[in-house]
Design goal:
alpha/beta; 6-stranded parallel β-sheet; Rossmann fold; elongated; 7-stranded parallel β-sheet; about 425 residues; single chain
C-alpha cells in the first residue's frame, strides 16, 4: 500500500466559515499543534458550508463542506475532532450565517456537533470534542453524556458536568502561529492605508452587539476623556467579525475633534491584521473571550469588559463590568501583560493527550478526501488583493488632495519665496 494512502485521516469540524476570525485562529492553532505532534496524520477541516461559501477570513483555504445527510455520503474519516463554539442546535447555527433552520438540519450540523453522528450513525470511528464552548443560549447537551469532551472554558465544563474536563482556549497560544515578520508587513500595509496610526495606540476589540449595551456608552466616554487628556494617543477599533453587521462606524462613535484620532480597521482585514494592530499597541480592551485571549497570547496588557459571558474569559484576564476613565487610565499607564503560563501548560498537556489518542493506522476503507476547491480559494484571495489595492488608492488620493490643498493655501504662497531664498543661500555656502 502507498505510504501516503496509509496515513490516518482526521477531520476537524468547527464554525470555520462564519467569518469569525476567532474561529479562524482556532483552526490555525489546532492544525499547527496537531501537525507538530502527529506529522503522520492528514488533517481535513470541515464546516457546514466551507468552500461553497468562501469568505475572506478562510485565508484561501476553505474548509470541506458538509453534504446533505440525505445524500448518504460518508465523511470517510478515521477520527473526528469537533472544536470551537459549536454546542448549539440548528436554530443557533442558522443564526450565525444566517440561513434557514431547515438548511442546517438538512446538513445535520447540530446532530454532528451535539452527538457526533451523521444520519443516526457515528460520524467516525473516533469522535472527540476538544476546546468546545456553547454557541449561545440554552441547548440540550444530553447527547454528550459519556463522550470524550474537553471544554473550552469553566462555564462550559460546568454545564457539561460528568466526565468533561477543561482544555483551555487554544487562542491563548495563538502567538505560535503568528509570524513576527508577517505581522510587521501587515502593520506597514495598514499604515499605508491610513487604518493604523504610527504613534502610541490602544486597541478596542468590539463585538457586534456592543452598541446596544450600557457598557458601550461608558467605554466611549472613557476613551473620549483619555484622548482629550493625551494628544499623542490614538485608538484603533477592531472586530473579529469584520464582515458582520453593523459596520464599525455605527458601533463606536466618539464625539468631538478627538474623533480624528479614532481609527477603524477595514472590513477586508484578516487574522494577521488584527494581531498586527494588537501586537504594537500599549493595551487592548476586549469585549469577547477570543479577542482577550488573542491579545494575551501576544503579551499585550489586556482588560476585558464583563458581559453575560464573563465566565468564559481565562481567570488570569481582569474582567470589569464596565470601563471607567480611571480603569482605562490605569491600563494605559503601564499595566503588565497577564500571566497565562498555567493556561499554556494546561493546553500543552491537553494537546499532547489528544495527539496520543488519534489513530496510528488508517482504516481499510478508502478515505475520499474532497479535492481542493482551487477556484473558490483563488477568488477569495483575488478579492482580498482588490480590496487592499482600493484602500491604498483611496489613501493616496486623500494624501494628494491634502497636498494640493496645502500648495493652494495662502501660507504656502507666502512661505515659498522665503524657502527658495534660503535654499539658494545654502547652495552658495556649499
Amino acid at each position: 500500500m502507498d505510504g501516503a494512502a496509509a496515513r490516518p485521516v482526521v477531520g476537524l469540524f468547527g464554525a470555520f466559515d462564519t467569518g469569525d476570525l476567532g474561529e479562524v485562529a482556532l483552526r490555525r492553532v489546532l492544525e499547527a499543534e496537531l501537525t507538530r505532534r502527529r506529522p503522520d496524520i492528514d488533517l481535513v477541516a470541515l464546516a457546514p458550508y466551507g468552500a461553497e461559501r468562501p469568505i475572506p477570513g478562510d485565508e484561501g483555504r476553505p474548509a470541506r463542506p458538509l453534504e446533505p445527510v440525505e445524500s448518504g455520503e460518508s465523511l470517510a474519516l478515521d477520527a473526528l475532532i469537533i472544536s470551537g463554539d459549536v454546542l448549539g442546535d440548528d436554530e443557533h447555527w442558522a443564526a450565525r450565517y444566517p440561513t434557514a433552520i431547515e438548511e442546517m438540519a438538512g446538513r445535520g450540523v447540530a446532530a454532528l456537533a451535539l452527538a457526533g453522528t451523521r444520519g443516526g450513525r457515528d460520524a467516525a470511528p473516533s469522535v472527540t470534542w476538544f476546546a468546545v464552548g456553547a454557541a449561545g443560549g440554552e441547548v440540550d447537551m444530553a447527547g454528550l453524556a459519556g463522550k470524550d469532551v474537553w471544554a473550552r472554558d469553566a462555564v462550559t465544563q460546568e454545564r457539561l458536568g460528568g466526565t468533561a474536563v477543561q482544555s483551555g482556549d487554544p487562542l491563548l497560544i495563538a502567538c505560535r502561529v503568528l509570524s513576527g515578520d508577517a505581522l510587521r508587513r501587515r502593520a506597514d500595509l495598514l499604515r499605508m492605508c491610513g487604518a493604523l496610526p504610527a504613534g502610541r495606540r490602544i486597541v478596542i476589540e468590539v463585538a457586534t452587539g456592543l452598541a446596544a449595551t450600557p457598557s458601550s456608552e461608558h467605554l466611549v466616554a472613557a476613551v473620549a476623556a483619555e484622548l482629550r487628556g493625551d494628544p499623542k494617543l490614538a485608538v484603533v477599533i477592531a472586530t473579529l467579525n469584520p464582515t458582520g453587521q453593523p459596520p464599525l462606524e455605527s458601533v463606536f462613535r466618539v464625539p468631538g475633534l478627538v474623533a480624528e484620532r479614532v481609527h477603524r480597521l477595514p472590513a477586508w482585514v484578516g487574522l494577521d491584521d488584527i494581531a498586527a494592530a494588537m501586537s504594537g499597541s500599549i493595551a487592548v480592551v476586549a469585549t469577547t473571550p477570543a479577542g482577550a485571549h488573542l491579545a494575551a497570547s501576544l503579551d499585550v496588557p489586556v482588560t476585558a469588559i464583563g458581559t453575560d459571558i464573563g465566565d468564559r474569559f481565562d481567570p488570569a484576564i481582569p474582567v470589569i463590568p464596565m470601563v471607567a476613565p480611571d480603569a482605562l487610565q490605569a491600563l494605559i499607564a503601564g499595566a503588565p501583560p497577564v500571566a497565562i503560563d498555567n493556561a499554556v501548560e494546561t493546553l500543552d498537556g491537553a494537546f499532547a493527550e489528544l495527539a496520543q489518542r488519534l489513530p496510528r493506522t488508517a482504516s481499510s476503507a478508502p478515505n475520499l478526501i474532497a479535492a481542493d476547491h482551487v477556484a473558490s480559494a483563488l477568488a477569495t484571495l483575488q478579492q482580498r488583493l482588490v480590496d487592499e489595492r482600493t484602500a491604498l488608492q483611496a489613501e493616496l488620493s486623500r494624501l494628494q488632495a491634502d497636498l494640493d490643498h496645502l500648495r493652494a493655501s495662502p501660507e504656502h504662497r507666502l512661505a515659498r519665496p522665503i524657502r527658495e531664498g534660503y535654499q539658494r543661500w545654502q547652495r552658495r555656502r556649499t
